[in-house]
Amino acid sequence: MRYQAQFIQALDSLKAEGRYRVFADIKRSCGAFPHARQTIDAASRDVTVWCSNDYLGMGQSPVVRSAMHAAIDAAGAGSGGTRNISGTTHYHIELESALARLHGKETALLFTSAFVANDTTLATLARLLPELVVFSDEKNHASMIEGIRHGGTSKLIFKHNDSADLERLLRKAPADAPKLIVFESVYSMDGHIAPIREICDLAERYGALTYLDEVHAVGLYGPHGAGIAERDGEMGRVDIINGTLAKGFGVMGGYIAASRACCDAIRSFAPGFIFTTSLAPAVVAGALASVEYLSASEIERACLQERARALKRRLTVAGLPVMDNPSHIVPVFVGNPVRCKWITDTLAERFGIYVQPINYPTVPRGTERLRLTPTPQHTDADMDHLCASLSKLWAEYPASISAMSEPFAKEA
Questions:
Q1: 247, 312, 341, 410: which is the annotated catalytic residue?
Q2: What residues form DSSP beta bridges with 82?
Q3: How confident is the model at residue 91 (pLDDT cuts 50, 70, 90)?
Q4: For the chain, how long is the longest CA-to-CA vector?
Q5: pLDDT at 398
């Protein structure tokens, strides 16, 4: 019984901090995105979804859906095994070729998610490169942190997007040691964009490999949707690019794109790749259709950026604390977990607006926020309703909740 009591105690502590998460039962209707139905205790209500990472709405695209239907009819449901046994289909080969072309690399390697791709690739690189020193941005995603930790190698953390601090650490490392700089292009909780050119300059100067996570940028930036590195003309200087098929491309899965030797080494030595059943053919076919479509069409990317600018402008005019950044991410600062959860719960209950609170450990304590993700499908009317609703809640936030959350704000 003590085991169950410990589980309950741990959960109670989360609830006391306002950080306990409840899965949302959302029923989407194809073609109606971002509008959906949310079910709570057998009752349902209409909601507008404001926190989806399907940034372009490609999960609803007829191009993607028709490709998935065709693959199911042609190949069936599952992949049938790991890539080494029976899980490599022609769909997988085609998608890896398309991703390699997209990023201008010799080849690419598919994983079941971008988290797995980061975790297993970074851990395997540490095993393949003895005495490796990893230089990691302090705001890197949990998947990158886990991969570096699992690799068990030396790591040095540089200040967020701070090239001077990165160079200071590079100078300290042994000149003959293999080095790897690990960073993201778009940091999804703040919306910051990395100084890729400066980091690549340092990598060349100090003989380091570069590992760039473009998860929140692929499909969304660059003439062909290859990400910030393509937009900035630096793609050829980055050694290893990590990306996802689950956000801008609207399906699921992750990948790396790099040299043939690098991908072959990861393929041959990474347990997270070797022992995992491969993505289903229908998923791969849908992702391939999305990659090919967005490589040719810039309409969706342009519309996303316009919608993000429009929402930031409206929120600013309304006097709401938008966290300024140059990307499509729209964070609104709240500052404590209890208030953050009250706002999101009340938005759904009273205004039919669905957004999840962003609390610790996703962001540091005291920096809790709403993370809004406008899409091309969000209308001006959707934005006006969101801004008016948020303004009302900011004005009427209960003093009792403010007092209750005070200890957590102070702790941060």
A1: 247
A2: 277
A3: very high
A4: 64
A5: 60
Q: How many other CB atoms sit within 10 Å of the CB of residue 223?
A: 10
Stretch 136-158: mean pLDDT, rounded?
97
Q: Which residues of 20-53 are buried (b: 16+ CB within 10 A; e: fewer)?
A: eeeeeeeebeeeebbbbebeeeeeeeebbbbbbb
286-298 average pLDDT score: 98
Distances (CA, A) of 392 to 18, 101, 239, 355, 401: 21, 49, 48, 16, 16
Q: What is the pLDDT of residue 397?
A: 77
CA atoms lying within 13 Å on the CB side of residue 356: 16
Nearest CA-CA partner of 292 in 70, 95, 90? 95
Q: What integer pLDDT is reported at residue 20 of this predicted model? A: 86
Q: Report the mean per-residue pLDDT for the chain.
A: 94
Strands 107-111 and 35-40: unpaired
Residue 407 above 60 pLDDT?
A: no
Q: Tell me, yes or no, if 139 is annotated catalytic.
A: no
Q: How many CB atoms lie within 10 A of CB 78?
A: 13
Phi/psi at 162 (nearest 5 deg)?
-105, 95
Residues whose CB is less than 8 angstroms from the CB of residue 261 and which lie 6 or more positions away in sequence, other chains included: none
Q: pLDDT for 37-84, tens place per residue?
A: 998 877 889 999 999 999 999 999 999 999 999 999 999 999 999 999
Residues composing the chain: 412
**CB pairs under 8 A, 24+ apart, for 92-95?**
92/278, 92/279, 92/281, 92/284, 94/288, 95/284, 95/287, 95/288, 95/291
The pLDDT, as a whole number, for residue 1 is: 60
User: Angle at CA 69, nearest 5°, toward 65 and 70?
Assistant: 115
Give the contacts of 153 (CB within 8 A, at least 6 positions apart).
126, 131, 132, 133, 134
DSSP state of 216: T
Scan for tokens 């004005």, then name that residue. 395
Q: Smallest Cα–Cα separation from 339: which of 17, 70, 67, 40?
A: 17
Q: For residues 283 and 92, what is the distance between their CA atoms, to the nearest angstrom? A: 10
Q: Does 90 have pLDDT greater than 90? A: yes
CA atoms of 245 and 87, how far apart (whole Å): 18
